[in-house]
């Protein structure tokens, strides 16, 4: 099979990349937002990776060369000051986290379109994320996401999160980073990573704490409370035992108890000697009585 090696002359790719570059340029000129520009660039690079690597038609050499050609187009995007730092890693977890961060920021920016035509926006989100979800989601089992900082607490399925308009978070989003996102195939492992120190007292932005996160938080709090209760009981019993030992060893009451115990032991010992003597005497008398009867017969 013949493949084109001159990737700079692939019209479809160049046409699409020109459109992407124009979108990024216009957005950057309008907002002067380098961080948003980085998010947009990474989104398109990740999308190209997903499309190219998901195909079974092209061999790996062609895929790698094609992606390399697209990455060279970085020089055509706006002159972002820290462009090398902006470029993200291409492992699946890094791509997933970038998708989540972009989605949350886009929801905040698109608040008005979402409120005015939510169904159209959901269709737009499907077109926007389906290729990347298909590339980054495991073939079997669910993939769970925990997002947590001082103003947010969300636990959801990865694909459901990227299709949802529920998380329009105004507070704390600017401080959200990939370090605040945990991804796992095991829901229980996410519970262990919930931080009780990050719970916000701000009630004005409760949409950024979803029901699943709150339930898991209650579950973890209850488990910690049970452990604390057992520890409290154990400490109380230990303290009570130590007090008794101290009283017995060093207090007047302890001396009285020791004298009483000693006297009781002596009395019990004397009683035992008397009982043994009586038993012995009874035993001797019994033998004499039996012997007397034997003679009379």
TrEMBL record:
The chain crosses the membrane at residues 230-250. Keywords: Membrane, Transmembrane, Transmembrane helix. The keyword Membrane applies. The keyword Transmembrane applies. It comes from the Eukaryota. This is PIR protein. The lineage of its organism: Eukaryota, Sar, Alveolata, Apicomplexa, Aconoidasida. The gene is PocGH01_00055600.
